[in-house]
Amino acid sequence: MTEQTTSGRQDDEIRAELDRLRAQIAELQEVRRQLEAELQDTSSSATAPITTSAELEATLRWFLRRVGMILQAEKAALMLYEPETGGLVAQWPALGLTEEEVGIFRVRATQGISGQVFRESRPIITDDATSDPRTVKENVALLNVRNVLTVPLVIERKDAEGMVVEKNNIGVFHVFNKRNNGRFAEEDITLITALAKSAASVISSAKLYIAVSDEKRELERTLQGMLAGVLVVGADSRVRLMNSAARHIFGISADDGTGKPLSQVIEDEAVHELIRSCLSGSSEATAELSVFSPEERIYQVQTSCLTGDNGDVAGVIATFNDITELRSVERMKSEFVSTVSHELRTPLTSIKGFIRTLLEDTDGYYDRDTQLEFYNIIDAECDRLVRLISDLLNLSRIESGRALDLVLSEFDLAQVINQVVESQRSYTHRHEFEIIIQDDLSNVTADRDKMDQILTNLLSNAIKYSPDGGKITVHARDVGDNIAVSISDEGIGVAEEQISRLFTRFHRVDSRDSRKQYGTGIGLHLVKHLVEAHKGEVSVESKLGVGSTFTFVLPRGLSRDDLSGQSAAGEPAAAESNPGESPPAGSS
Ligand code: ADP
Questions:
Q1: What is the Å distance from ligand 1's center to 587 Cα?
Q2: Do β-strands 296-307 and 106-108 pair in parallel, antiparallel, or remain unpaired?
Q3: Confidence band (pLDDT; 50, 70, 90) for 191?
């Protein structure tokens, strides 16, 4: 009776244990099923895969919690192998560890139990981590480890028949501290090895997916941020990609284009031709393309073929670089060369003419006053040549990136203004000049020759661009620590949209009134550089048909220290000195 009772109790206990194990197995099967579903999701794009680190973190958190519950473990952590450092590094999230502990927990792949499991791809159970000679003691102390079950994280690649053809070890999985002072058993290894395999696949697929999509996003950001237009067309002549610059060039809205045939997206036949010839096998090409949207812009287009794995043409990538400004500067430059030739020849012809007349006048036909008048004209024409050459030399200095060296001295700006106005007055009978100078205008410390050049350029423009005459006013005043000088005219003025380009080298306003006057388009460009060399600023207010006011403002007391990188004293370089004693004249 007693024996029966004992064996009955044992049967009950065995049944209870079996029930417990069955429940555990069912739970494990559920975890595995869910992990495998997760894995399927990750590898097939039809369902929603793990696409972000946050989603991966949530999945792993769920997995670790379940493992902790099933194995009755306090802590669990995944470690991944880092080929760059040769280390095994704990990953966040982990069960029962703080973020800080995870940050510190890492070993070399040659160290400790982690290293051994990783290298040998074999699970290990350690019942007493503190005394086990294989454990890394700092980590045992850091994580407060009593016992541990460690399994490798292996990814298996299978062939069509389900045979494992490749195994790749990506790290290890630790489960620490069995609850209630229990020990990890052999059956725990079987369970956890199966789960770790699924977890390894989920992690590596998700990490790969996240890395590829991060790279893709980065590439897209770079492409979108590019100034050049980028167009990618597939071998089927459909648009694969267009960055925003390309959309802008062809006036295509953001959600339009991708996936459609090129002919439906871009009308320009020249673009079709370029893409067609590349797709039909001809190598890279470069061409120029004019696009009217609505103003004409010129693009340099470069096409290159994209080849697939088998060497066939898989598509074409075309880049569009805006070279409108480049072409416009080239055009302005060639116009400039012919204008400069003209500007040089005109005074020379006049000088030669008057000298020949005087030389040939052996009979004394011309009286003294007429001769004087001829000499004055020759003198003025020489000034005009000197002025032009000086401007050209200064321009070449600016173009080659050299600073305009300033020779500083303190002087009375009113005196320079009066001199320049007197000199300019001699070129015109149509204009009335008014000089308004603040009574107690302070002296300035600046480069006197360059002040002369700035004023001469602005005044000669005021005369040139008010061909019907009118009043020209020069107004100088102190403004705080600065001196401000304005030159106003009542001439042809400048249209608002042209104002921003006035100081661009070689730029001349393309209007009939403006083009009537000869010029090189470098005067204002030089004025800007000369004023800026003095740490000042030049600005313009103008109204078409009413007149213009050019104002420059500069610090009154410039010092050598203000001109870092420039030589502020000494002999001016020949290139920018104002040659000759005579005041500069006329044409800018
Ligand atoms: P330019 O040698 O052609 O005079 P500038 O650089 O001095 O070259 O001037 C550039 C252009 O700015 C001129 O071609 C002219 O169209 C315009 N401009 C300059 N000054 C004036 C002004 N006072 N009134 C109207 N237009 C002006």
A1: 11
A2: unpaired
A3: confident
CB 463 within 8 A of CB 423: no
- Our answer on whether the CB atom of 488 is closer than 6 Å to any ligand 1 atom is no
d(CA 424, CA 380): 10
Q: What is the pTM of this model?
A: 0.52
Please state, as a whole number, how many other Cβ atoms lie within 10 Å of the Cβ of residue 176.
26
Fill in the DSSP letter of residue 572: P
- Cα–Cα distance between 588 and 583 in angstroms, integer? 14
Within this chain, do residues 308 and 329 fall inside the same structural domain, yes or no? no
- The answer to whether position 353 is within a domain reads yes
Please identify which residue in the block is written with the tokens 């770790």. 196
Residue 402 C-alpha from the chain's centroid: 26
Q: Is the CB–ligand 1 distance for residue 523 below 6 Å?
A: yes
Q: What is the pLDDT of residues 352-401, one digit of tens each?
A: 999 999 999 988 899 999 999 999 889 988 988 888 888 888 888 887 77
Where helices occur in 106-185 by DSSP H, the ranges are 112-120, 137-143
Are residues 194 and 260 located together in one domain of the fold? no
Does any ligand 1 atom lie closer than 6 A to the CB of residue 494?
yes
Q: What is the pLDDT of residues 458-496, one digit of tens each?
A: 999 999 999 999 999 999 999 999 999 999 999 999 999
Q: How far is the CA of 515 from the centre of ligand 1 (A)?
A: 10
DSSP conformation class of 253: -
Q: What is the DSSP letter of 573?
A: P
We report the CATH number of the domain holding residue 284 as: 3.30.450.20
Residue 4 lies in a domain: no
Q: Which residue CA neighbors atom 11 of ligand 1 most closely? A: 508
Domain span holding position 82:
22-213
